[in-house]
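Narrative summary of target 7.
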Amino acid sequence: NVVRAELAHAAVQRLAESVGVDLLHIKGPAVHPGLRAVRSNSADVDVIVRPEGVEPLMDALAAHEWVIETDFLGGSPFDHAANLYHPSWGLLDVHRLYPGMEQDPSSAFESLWRRREEVSLAHVACPVPEPLAQSLVLLLHAARTHHGAEAHPDLAPNWQHRSPEDRARIREIARETGATVGLAAAIGELDRFAGAPEAALWEVFAHRGDRLDEWGARLRAARGTRAKASVAVRSLGVNRYYLGQRLGHPPSHRDVVREFFHRFRTAWELLTRKVGNP
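Modeled conformation, tokenized:
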């Protein structure tokens, strides 16, 4: 898995260079030694792309046999990444922004890019965030995983064992990229932002909320009438990719309809329970 992941990182890097797109490699073999408490054997590739380069990169990927599994609006509560698959290289997550970095995505990317370093993956020079910025990326990821931030193994090497100077610098990078609230969620300081729209989704992760809590938080966090309307409409939609993963085969029209009514019924039951137990 590790060898395949390095080869996949290298392949994506060469493809990005061929179309003049800047991207940063994150997670997996791209992470600086010592920043992961547990070595990852994942073969997935994760990259953050300069927003202006997302479209040309996606076009280039499509031209080289990468197939979209979920698009940017179907992959996560943050609408941040498209998931692709290649028969030789495996899975790729293309991030058009990084969850938690709420500043303008172009400015956030530039903040990470101007302090980038390089690592050699399959003998190809791949740009990566500097180690302290990598720590911020890993902390933001920890804050939205099922472990819960306080129990996540990445918390110790990237925060608890960091020096006061390193912590101050991580906070500074978080301010520059608009990730102050996300960092607070990771290090147990989310109460400082209780009730703020930008804290809504992080509160769901911190308190292990259900799907109804998640969609309510997405609605609160959405900025503007159009964005809120989009969230409301998509809350009733069915993600065909994830449904297929659960069923073990491509979903039929009947499967999708059945899932739609199941989701509606589940949402109604959750809502009824919440109203009855405020």
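The longest strand covers residues 81-86.
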